[in-house]
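This section describes the prediction task in plain terms. A model, or a person checking by hand, is given the sequence of a single protein chain and must write out its three-dimensional structure as a string of tokens. No templates, partner chains or ligands are provided. The sample shown here is typical of the held-out split.
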Amino acid sequence: MMKKLLGLGLLIFLSYNLLASHLVGGSLGYEYMGKVGTNYRYKIKLIVYNNCDGTSQIPLPVPTHNVSIYSQDLPNNPMGGGNKTLIQTITLNLIDSNEVTPPVSSGCAIGQTVCIYKGVYEAIVDLPLNFNGYHLYFENFARNDAITNLLSPGATAMAFHAYIAPSLVNNSTPVFLDDPVPFLCVNDTVSILNTAIDPDGDQLIFSFVTPMSGNGPSPSPLPWTIPTVLYNAGYSLAQPFGAGGYAFINGSNGLTQYMAPALGNYVVAVEIREYRAGKLIGVSRRDLQLLVISCPPNPAPNLSSAGGSGTTQYTISECENLNFPITFTDANGDSLTLTANGQLFDPTFITPPATLNNPITGDAIVTSNFNWTAPCGSGQTLPYIFSVAVTDKGCPPKTTNEIYEITVTPPTAPNQITGLNMVCENTTLT
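The expected answer:
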């Protein structure tokens, strides 16, 4: 009888781990939607990325996922305090899904077997007034068995967290604009945007953090701090790709650069902290699994410095016009495609919006011209940010990303006004 029970337990464990190889990343966030009666309404949004190649047991997103909500116990310290009390667990429904396809070029098969499917889940929840805020928590026992930089990855869960500011703050998490790249080329430095737009205009600070491993789905209470993954020997938060590797993140805009010296699957996590008037009001993160494969040589497009094209930071005054070219070249003469993204191009965000002709293509060289007149009253401490991505048609296609920051200052008032002390009506002066 004991042998049968042990056999059954082993079968269940193996079956559980067979299903534990489909998630390769994701993020958790929320949108504040307004007050409803005495409660505060939020749209909770979960994004997960599934491995959909032939090795995945669950290649497509499942219909629902659960997210748990906890109360913050310590005031004025969002990430402090002890274990968090469970308020409720909600079910999020799949509202959208699509395959994340890598750039393709004719006749190139490199990376085309890599398959990632994106699932977007949402639910509406009304929460009572809370002066300390709430925590959102998602966990799924489904990390990939083949992760290079983690210890026992097949027995390690994947967990996401986000902090909801106190009810009266009325905050929404930043929204990532891009999907993770399906793969990286070994020994090749690559840039990834991780660009996020904050609907409230808060200051965003980006950083690498250790991915979370969690403590079981919907734990009650939520252990604090949330447990994190264990790295394999030779790997760490500072060296996610091991000795000889490289990982850098720009704290102000999220632009990251990676270089992996060996093939494999690597996990990293990026955290965003939101500050308003110098006070921490929001925390969210993105968990990524990066696949590193062998590729033939193909230099990425380069940002040209000719004609001022290489400048990426500008300072102008309100009502001043800014006009400059953005030019990229390709050493192999490949065809190039330039695209741009950012709130500056959205007339619902700012009027008049900036203009930049995109997408635009060119052979070996591509140029587009940025033009914007900063409206009166647009001066602020934080820079306006937009991103430009240029992809070639090499094998495999390579992409170069650049972030542009434009600081707008208020107009400078004159120190004094000179002239006559008094001018009479109907008097002509020259």
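For orientation: The CA atoms of residues 121 and 338 lie 31 Å apart.
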